[in-house]
């Protein structure tokens, strides 16, 4: 019975990935078991560019996979200006980041713009968790309207 439920869950996630325009070569299993996706937090922090940070628990994969297309959009449209990083909060090696950023709800993703030069970060409200919302927020940041 447990195998049937897991299979159904994987099929549900796979269908969700297709509906959300997740790349065909996207490895869901690797995503669920990695401490990060995109640049590692350390790579992003040591870079000269600010970055969009997504913190979320892949235990709730259905809420996390929707950020893969957003990450691709950030890389494609803002790659010269921003890095992108998803931190898996269920991984023990990320506990320090979770304690530092203190996301409001570990069952839901939390997005931040992290300014590596100023050592500041800005929490992005949930109502902007779409491609257009993130696009608008990143443009406002680049125009100096957010910090």
What does this structure look like?
With 147 residues, this protein is an alpha+beta fold. Helices cover 44% and strands 18% of the residues. Strands 1-3-2-4-5 form a 5-stranded mixed β-sheet. A hairpin with a 4-residue loop joins β4 and β5 (120-124). The chain is globular.
Largest sheet geometry? 5 strands, mixed
Spans of at least 5 consecutive residues whose pLDDT stays below 50 are 16-20
Looking at the chains present, what oligomeric state does this protein adopt? Answer: single chain
- Structural class by secondary-structure content: alpha+beta
Share of residues in strands = 15-25%
Order of helices and strands: HHEHEHHEHEEH
Compute the CA-based radius of gyration: 15 Å
Counted beta strands: 5
Strand order of the largest sheet: 1-3-2-4-5
Distance between the termini: 52 Å
Mean pLDDT: 82
Helix content: 40-55%
Number of helices in the DSSP assignment: 7
How does the overall form come out from the CA principal axes?
globular
């Amino acid at each position: 019975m447990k195998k049937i439920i897991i299979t159904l869950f994987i099929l549900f996630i796979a269908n969700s990935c297709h509906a959300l325009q997740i790349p065909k070569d996207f490895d869901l299993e690797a995503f669920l078991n990695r401490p990060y996706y995109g640049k590692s937090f350390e790579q992003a922090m040591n870079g000269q560019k600010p970055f969009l940070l997504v913190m979320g628990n892949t235990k709730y994969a259905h809420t996390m996979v929707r950020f893969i297309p957003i990450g691709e959009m950030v890389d494609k449209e803002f790659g010269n200006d921003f890095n992108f990083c998803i931190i898996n909060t269920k991984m023990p090696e990320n506990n320090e980041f979770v304690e530092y950023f203190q996301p409001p709800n570990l069952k839901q993703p939390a997005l931040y713009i992290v300014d590596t030069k100023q050592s500041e970060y800005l929490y992005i409200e949930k109502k902007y968790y779409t491609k257009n919302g993130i696009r608008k927020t990143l443009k406002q940041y680049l125009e100096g309207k957010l910090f």
